Amino acid sequence: MSRFNALDENRLEQLRDLAGASNVSTGQADLDLHAKDQSHHAARQPEVVIYATDTQQVARILQFANEACIPVTPWGVGTSLEGNPIPVHGGILLSFEKMTQIVKIHADDFQVTTQPGIGRKDLNVQLARHGLFFAPDPGANATIGGMLANNAAGIQTVKYGATKDNVVQMQVVLADGRILRLGSRSVKQSSGYNLMQLIVGSEGTLGVITEATLKLAPVPEHMSAVVAAFSTVTEAVEAVVAVRGCGIVPAALELLDTTAVTMLNTTGDVDLAPHPSIFMEFHAAHETSLTAELDLIREICKEIGAINIQATADPTERKRLWHARHALYENAVRQNPGKTFYVNDVAVPISAYPELIAYIEQQRDAHGMTAYLVGHAGDGNIHMAMPYEGETGYQNAQALNSEVVNKAIELNGTATGEHGVGLGKIPFMTHEHGDALIAMRQIKDLLDPNGILNPGKIFPEGM
Ligand SMILES: Cc1cc2nc3c(=O)[nH]c(=O)nc-3n(C[C@H](O)[C@H](O)[C@H](O)COP(=O)(O)OP(=O)(O)OC[C@H]3O[C@@H](n4cnc5c(N)ncnc54)[C@H](O)[C@@H]3O)c2cc1C
């Protein structure tokens, strides 16, 4: 029997009073739309979708849900890849679709204060007028709230950091409705416990973010994209480590194996040599420093045995290349009709990256699985996108995933570099964290004693 209470008509009526009737929906289309993210995990409908409009309203909803013991699962735009926003215990789905306002652009401080429901691409369109941008970039147009909650990262993390590195202040509503302001607008902060960073990456299980002040970077004056192809994945990985070690910080450093490069070519946007490749981007304030950096990168790649190096500073060419890279996942899905994708995101220290990639290739062959390998190699992060069909295919993908995750943890890495724990990484939490997982549970119990916030995530059943 569920430890939560169902939402009967009486409770729904109270929620309409608290949230505003037009913000409360039990319509089938709304329930369906918020039942599943972009992962392979099964859908589960909430009992009601409530559209958040402001911090006070969110506080009223949480206070009510906490007292009535009703689950609340925050929802950005549902692009998670690990089941993070699936309301597995039903209850209230709290959507931030209506909270998309930019509160203030602090251009002189390179900061923006915004509501959590704005998409990062939409935010960047507004910021471009000020010559600024918010750098963390998961391929999707994820919301700021979803990115903070998952500590999303992406292609440019190697230079600009993950979402956690790009936030200075947040407004958060706790499970009991208390409203907290965490952090400050100072970029240096050393005051008290870092509660803000506790909420970042907590996947909506510790508090609900209703406002955030983010760090911004100036839009770079000069950019260049480089693709270097190698005969073997081993050489490509060697080049990744060498580029990281040469002192130049690329804005992106991605590894793609031959299957992924071949997939990219089918987009029609690019025509690349079908070999394991590294994709790089470099940002600089001066053309001369960019040229000098590119010369050194070319030299490094050639020395390691690159069979083809293409570099371009042409903005259209550069955008076409990265567009193809960003569209890789959607394209792979299109090219595998009727199949579901199992995607993982392990990460290891850069020195262990060659061993991890060699292990992945060996196990992929042993399982006879297709898996497109593409990763934010500069951060020691790799994705395997594994198309599968039917129960046997699922079991095979799951077995391969377990082997790779356990290997990454043994290499002193992590089960998840950026997608978060959600549902899929729960089985690995004890292996990765040991007794620290008990401390995490104690923190959860302290901040959310009734366990109403995004229940069923992060912790193994019964913990
Ligand atoms: C094609 C594709 C490529 C991707 N590439 C990357 C990548 O390179 N790197 C990467 O990191 N991710 C990537 N992702 C995954 C995804 O975009 C990120 O996990 C993103 O952070 C999810 O944001 P969202 O707005 O969709 O949030 P949702 O999926 O709706 O929610 C994410 C989590 O945040 C919680 N949440 C949402 N809003 C709030 C809030 N206001 N307060 C508290 N909790 C909240 C939810 O409960 C959930 O646990 C990719 C996804 C796709 C589909």
General description of the model:
The chain has 16 helices and 18 strands. The radius of gyration is 22 Å and the shape is globular. A hairpin with a 7-residue loop joins strand 17 (372-375) and strand 18. The strands form four sheets. A seven-stranded antiparallel β-sheet has the order 15-12-14-13-17-18-16, with helices on both faces. A five-stranded antiparallel β-sheet has the order 5-6-10-8-9. Strands 1-2-4-3 form a four-stranded mixed β-sheet. The protein is of the alpha+beta class and 463 residues long. Flavin-adenine dinucleotide binds next to strand 3, helix 5 and strand 10.
Summary tags:
7-stranded antiparallel β-sheet; 5-stranded antiparallel β-sheet; single chain; 463 residues; 18 strands; alpha+beta; binds flavin-adenine dinucleotide
Largest sheet: 7 strands, antiparallel
What small molecules does the structure contain? flavin-adenine dinucleotide
Q: Extract low-pLDDT stretches.
A: none
Structural class call reads: alpha+beta
Strands side by side in the biggest sheet: 15-12-14-13-17-18-16
Mean of the pLDDT scores? Answer: 96
Annotation field: number of helices: 16
Q: Helical residue percent? A: 25-40%
Percent strand: 15-25%
Number of strands: 18
What distance separates the N and C termini?
17 Å
Radius of gyration: 22 Å
Envelope shape: globular
